[in-house]
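Q: I'm writing a short methods note and want an example of a predicted protein-small molecule complex. Could you take the sequence and the SMILES for 8-OXO-2'-deoxyguanosine-5'-triphosphate and return the bound structure as tokens? Please keep the output block clean; save any remarks for afterwards.
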Amino acid sequence: MTDVRVVVGGAVLDGGRLLAARRSAPAALAGRWELPGGKVEPGETPEEALVRELREELGIETEPLDRIPGEWAPRPGLVLRVWTARLVSGEARPLQDHDELRWLAPGQEDEVDWLDQDRPAVAEVMRRLGAAEVSGALYPSGAPYAP
Ligand SMILES: Nc1nc2c([nH]c(=O)n2[C@H]2C[C@H](O)[C@@H](COP(=O)(O)OP(=O)(O)OP(=O)(O)O)O2)c(=O)[nH]1
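A: Understood, no commentary inside the block.
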């Protein structure tokens, strides 16, 4: 059996919005938008990999919440799995692998050109956000809880 490498994508949520990141490399993917994240390293859980990648790429601390059901193949040998994650602290900046970031509210998801394989997960995350089904991620990080 050939090993399949897991790529974790983070649907980072804050204040009822989803973070989208525009890839700066490689050339074939540059300019397309994705859920920031990366490959799970040996010995890591996907959640640990997600927290590490989001810290490295965006300078933020996050808490993984739920896995979005399903998996998608960016290319042979890779499988993309997506978790929602709550922004705990920091302000996302494109430090590595990205050159632009946007926070999107439900209904704005079509304003950026997502990688094809990210679209089903993005649609499900936006559906949950619109239906206020995402616990812990509807209020801005650091803001007092005020329903
Ligand atoms: N990070 C991320 N990668 C995605 C998404 N969708 C998607 O098809 N991919 C693809 C692009 C890449 O071929 C692969 C992930 O590679 P990566 O370059 O982000 O991984 P990494 O940070 O661990 O980088 P490296 O170790 O290969 O240098 O998965 C997504 O939403 N997020």
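A: Remarks, as requested: The beta strands are 5-14, 17-23, 33-34, 37-39, 61-72, 78-89, 98-104. The mean pLDDT is 93.
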